[in-house]
Amino acid sequence: MPVLVASDLDRTLIYSSAALALTMPDARAPRLLCVEVHENRPLSYMTETAAQLLTRLGDTAVFVPTTTRTRKQYQRINLPGPPPKYAICANGGHLLVDGATDNDWHAGVQARLADECAPLAEVSEHLLCSADPVWVRKHRIAEDLFAYLVVERELLPEDWVKELAVWAENRGWTVSLQGRKIYAVPKPLTKSAAVREIARRTGAELTLAAGDSLLDADLLLAADRGWRPGHGELADTGWAAPHVGALPERGVLAGERIVREFLEATRTAAPLGG
To answer: What DSSP element (H or E) covers 105?
Structure first.
């Protein structure tokens, strides 16, 4: 049986310049590979070693990029290794099969959201009315599924996100602060649900996962084994689970460590599938 590896992307496998955390002397910095270009500029990176390991992983496991990014944002990324057959975008709102949306899956997600939580329009309006233009740079709706703000972190009031989270909780939504973005996401919109569907389709008996943010907690809890880096929301809050490794590495070296862990766990599981 195949091993399914579901990994968050931003600040887990791939890193912007601001998130690299290259704290070592310049001469000892790892060589980097650009894996995303946006508006003719390099945007995201992984180490060359991580890229080589990810190529090996793609040959030995069902590797599933699992992201809160929209489909358009995801398609800018050019990961090394064989093209993944499956990918999860919009936090589970879109399941891609060979790059195309599974329309039946998406329709089912929309039905669950309509039944179980407050409408997007209500949450979006609240964000617009309660956020201060002094520190908000952008307000975005993603795939007609959830909303997010791009903010100036140094100007963001300390308690505003906590107050938003309480307001959202009462309406069936969750809030996540990741770098300069504040996400408001419906609770039924989860990465784990889409991963379980892919496991069903592939017959995978072992699921591995990694992620750094609150929106990855359900993914990590649903996996058989998981890892989180030493940075991000989960690390900052001390989030832990018995089967989730809390790695000390931060920044792009954490991404390299995560791929190593995936590959080693896949290798040791291989006899089980044979």
So the answer is: helix 103-116
Q: What is the mean pLDDT of residues 63-92?
A: 97
Average pLDDT over residues 183-198: 97
Give SS3 for 242.
Answer: coil
Strands 100-101 and 94-97: antiparallel
Please give the helix or strand (H or E) that residue 7 lies within, else none.
Answer: strand 3-7
pLDDT of 146 over the 90 cut = yes
Backbone torsions φ then ψ of 158, nearest 5 degrees: -60, -35
Distance separating alpha carbons of residues 272 and 87, to the nearest angstrom: 25
SS3 string, 30-82, reads: CCEEEEEEECCEEEEEEEHHHHHHHHHHHHHCEEEEECCCCHHHHCCECCCCC
48 CB-side CA count, 13 A = 4
Contact 60, 266 (CB under 8 A): yes
> Which pLDDT score is estimated for 270?
55
